[in-house]
């Protein structure tokens, strides 16, 4: 995969460059601010970008705004966003559009190399990858408390894993149940949340995340 990195911490940026190159990804550029990221994408046309939410000059949302601009101008470029903390506003904004090829991970997840690389591969393939903690906090803070309260404990677990971007097969493996059981839970929770379960996998995830973020 051809990747551009945007991270203002030199140590983390160089560590990510080395990690990705060791995994046979091609790092086209590694920059330290959002504007430089957008400029690099315009010139190098990567398959994916990995970008920190907070970067110079204000260390607020420069990285996120760059990610949103990239999605608008180059929708074919996949985006994996990194954040130090769960920031609901930023997560919701990122998830408010098409989430195919989108990921949002906490930086702690980068230290778990396998999880980080799996998320990048999933996003690069056009899937989704949302940090479990991000999903849990969105679920806990959603304004749609009554419909969510109707879910059983197992349905809530399935919803969390589905929102992270896992397939039914992966969810079944994580919960140690059959895939048919997961499919039944998926159908039940979408009925309870009044969300269509006839669309494709990524669109179902989009529907869930829009619901949680509204």
From TrEMBL:
Pfam families named among the record's database cross-references: GerE, Response_reg
Superkingdom of this protein's organism: Bacteria
Residues the record lists as 4-aspartylphosphate modifications: 52
InterPro entries found in the cross-reference section: CheY-like_superfamily (IPR011006), NreC/VraR/RcsB-like_REC (IPR058245), Sig_transdc_resp-reg_receiver (IPR001789), Tscrpt_reg_LuxR_C (IPR000792), WalR-like (IPR039420)
Keywords on record: DNA-binding, Phosphoprotein, Transcription, Transcription regulation
Domain Response regulatory: 2-122
Domain (HTH luxR-type): residue spans on this chain: 144-209
Protein name as catalogued: Response regulator
Organism: Sphaerisporangium dianthi
């Amino acid at each position: 995969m051809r990747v551009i990195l945007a991270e203002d911490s030199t140590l983390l940026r160089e560590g990510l460059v080395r990690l990705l190159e060791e995994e046979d990804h091609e790092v086209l550029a590694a920059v330290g601010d959002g504007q430089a990221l957008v400029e690099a994408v315009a010139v190098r046309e990567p398959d994916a970008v990995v970008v920190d939410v907070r970067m110079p000059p204000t260390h607020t949302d420069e990285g996120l705004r760059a990610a949103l601009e990239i999605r608008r101008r180059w929708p074919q470029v996949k985006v994996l966003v990194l954040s130090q903390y769960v920031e609901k506003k930023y997560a919701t904004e990122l998830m408010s559009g098409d989430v195919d090829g989108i990921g949002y991970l906490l930086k702690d997840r980068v230290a778990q190399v396998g999880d980080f690389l799996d998320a990048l591969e999933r996003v690069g393939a056009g899937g989704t990858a949302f940090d479990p903690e991000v999903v849990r906090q969105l679920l806990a803070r959603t304004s749609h408390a009554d419909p969510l309260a109707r879910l059983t404990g197992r349905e809530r677990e399935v919803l969390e894993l589905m929102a992270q971007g896992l397939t039914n097969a992966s969810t079944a493996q994580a919960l140690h149940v059959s895939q048919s059981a997961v499919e039944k839970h998926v159908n039940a929770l979408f009925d309870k949340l009044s969300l269509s379960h006839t669309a494709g996998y990524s669109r179902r995830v989009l529907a869930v995340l829009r619901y949680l973020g509204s």
